[in-house]
Recover the amino acids of this structure.
């Protein structure tokens, strides 16, 4: 049977070198954005989603677990950070810590529940759990229900960087994104990542070798959820609001789409996918619900003809790992 | 007490929809190994089909009860032949992603033309009014929905568990190659099975049209609850799906009466509890 992540080529010295070169190129390109006249808000938003998609991809691409409820981490961290900044008046770095810690706590609980089942059931369970979280946020007062938390102060990061200045905010977001990306990259190529891949390929065999598969899967889930939360916390500074949209199942679907179109199980695919989908939403905003239809069509086309995604196809063409 | 009985009835009605939808999901999963994410969207199409029949062609509810499931079922079979078929031999998760895409397309198209608000669909004249049962007032239509759904569920169970066709179907679920070797056209059976599952969803849609109004997103949130129902019940048995569906509807209804704040979430909470105690679901086998 063809597994959902047949992109992943075994890590080799050459593969890692290729990926480091690609990483440097990506970082350099992104660093020049403020000088090109591209709308920085768009790129910042895309970077937050790119990080979110990379965190999601860590779970599906290397753990083989398709979560259909990742929006709950994005939204939870968003609400926690927004609440801490606006109501408690804490500094940005504390706000990010609060949000990320909230997503981490949620991922421990939901991961512990959902890794009891695999495959298709895992997807349904995570979706149902995120719907549970959605209804909780719909009813608790601190999220302000349908209105969301708005007008969030951006503040001074570490007392040094004024985040209300777009250029400074851009570089702060970029550095945070690159650091988190490197962390994911390091995780994938660590012994932990190798065991995770082994479990994905053949769980009974990994278990017979003495690896506690459930613990590894839970760790991957927590790491993925926490990093998704980090993305959600960063997004608060860009969008300056936290709303129910970020917890809704449509968001969970969008992140699946970003990872799918870029290439599940590739290192750079989710970044490419995130930029494509965010750009699409930006330019097609006037078409109303047709955006949903287009997203659906992309899903269908990707699944039927293009399962490796853009980066996966390129990597396969050059027989490299990207 | 009146309010309690009323909520119990609402619970039974929601339970009918859960039962019809999770039954269809289980049948489809058995044959195609696909969790049909488009199930909610096709349920919605069933309701819209009834609406079009009434307002476009002047065909009333009773015609819709037959025509809508058949028409949407045929649409489902076309989907199976043109799209789902290509996924044979691939990871099950691709089926989930593909049908999610199909659901987005269908819902998006309907939202474009009909917005997000509900369209009214009148209760058929024969089923209007209510009966006084002594302890409560029973609107006839609501009673009809519960009884009719129950009959359809039992008929489906009979078809699959007690007829020759059902025996082929169960055999093909276990070992399609062997069944093919006996000269039975398994691909056609797969198509028909998908059509049957979709037909059940569309039927639920027609039944719900007079109660819940006809809205493009009426199936979107429902399908997530049905997923939780499926996780709780497991997809191993037909009767299991039906009983779990009705039971969870009743639990939801009771929650609406005793602790309304939790009525949206109670099914999900129950799912968590079941996963903690018996991860394979109440009737499910280990996978």
């Amino acid at each position: 049977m063809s597994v959902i992540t047949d992109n992943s080529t075994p890590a080799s010295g050459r593969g890692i070198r290729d990926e480091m070169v690609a990483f440097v190129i990506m970082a350099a390109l992104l660093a020049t954005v403020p000088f090109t006249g591209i709308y920085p808000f768009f790129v910042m938003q895309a970077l937050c989603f790119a990080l979110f998609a990379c965190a999601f991809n860590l779970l599906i691409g290397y753990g083989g677990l398709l979560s259909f409820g990742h929006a709950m981490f994005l939204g939870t961290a968003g609400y926690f950070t927004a609440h801490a900044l606006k109501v408690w008046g804490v500094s940005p770095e504390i706000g990010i810590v609060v949000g990320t810690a909230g997503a981490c706590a949620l991922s421990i609980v939901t991961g512990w529940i959902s890794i009891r089942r695999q495959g298709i059931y895992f997807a349904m369970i995570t979706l149902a759990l995120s719907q549970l979280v959605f209804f909780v946020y719909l009813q608790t007062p601190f999220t302000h229900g349908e209105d969301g938390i708005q007008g969030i102060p951006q503040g001074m990061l570490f007392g040094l960087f004024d985040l209300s200045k777009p250029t400074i905010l851009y570089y702060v977001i970029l550095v945070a994104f690159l650091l988190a990306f490197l962390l994911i990259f390091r995780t994938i190529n660590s012994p932990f990542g190798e065991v995770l891949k082994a479990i994905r390929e053949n769980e009974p065999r990994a278990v017979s070798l003495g690896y506690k598969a459930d613990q590894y899967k839970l760790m991957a889930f927590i790491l993925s959820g926490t990093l998704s939360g980090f993305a959600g916390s960063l997004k608060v500074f860009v969008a300056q609001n936290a709303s129910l949209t970020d917890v809704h199942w449509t968001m969970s679907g969008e992140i699946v789409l970003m990872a799918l179109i870029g290439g599940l199980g590739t290192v750079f695919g989710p970044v490419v996918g995130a930029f494509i989908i965010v750009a699409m939403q930006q330019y097609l905003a006037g078409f109303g619900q047709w955006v949903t239809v287009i997203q659906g069509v992309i899903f269908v086309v990707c699944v039927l003809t293009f399962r490796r995604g853009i980066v996966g196809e390129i990597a396969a063409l050059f027989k490299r790992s990207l | 007490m009146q309010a309690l009985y009323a909520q119990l009835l609402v619970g039974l009605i929601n339970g009918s929809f859960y039962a019809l939808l999770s039954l269809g999901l289980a049948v489809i999963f058995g044959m195609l190994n696909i969790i049909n994410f488009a199930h909610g969207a096709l349920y919605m199409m069933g309701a819209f089909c009834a609406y079009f029949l009434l307002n476009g062609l002047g065909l009333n509810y009773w015609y819709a009860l037959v025509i809508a499931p058949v028409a949407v079922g045929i649409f489902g079979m076309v989907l199976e032949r043109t799209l789902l078929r290509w996924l044979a031999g691939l990871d099950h998760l691709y089926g989930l992603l593909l049908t999610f895409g199909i659901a987005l397309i269908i819902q998006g198209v309907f939202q474009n033309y009909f917005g997000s608000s509900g369209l009214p669909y009148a209760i058929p004249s024969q089923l209007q009014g209510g009966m006084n049962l002594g302890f409560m007032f029973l609107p006839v239509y609501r009673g009809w929905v519960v009884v009719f759904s129950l009959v359809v569920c039992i008929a489906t169970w009979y078809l699959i568990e007690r007829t020759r066709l059902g025996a082929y179907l169960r055999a093909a679920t276990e070992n399609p190659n062997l069944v093919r070797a006996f000269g039975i056209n398994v691909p056609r059976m797969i198509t028909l099975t998908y059509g049957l599952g979709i037909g059940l969803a569309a039927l639920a849609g027609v039944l719900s049209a007079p109660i819940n109004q006809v809205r493009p997103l009426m199936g979107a949130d429902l399908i997530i609850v049905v997923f939780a129902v499926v996780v709780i019940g497991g997809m191993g048995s037909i009767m299991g799906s039906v009983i779990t569906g009705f039971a969870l509807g009743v639990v939801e209804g009771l929650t609406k009466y005793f602790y309304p704040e939790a009525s949206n979430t109670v099914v999900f909470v129950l799912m968590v509890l079941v996963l903690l105690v018996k991860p394979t679901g109440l009737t499910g086998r280990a996978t």
Q: What stands out?
A: Chain B touches chain A through 46 residues (CB under 8 Å).
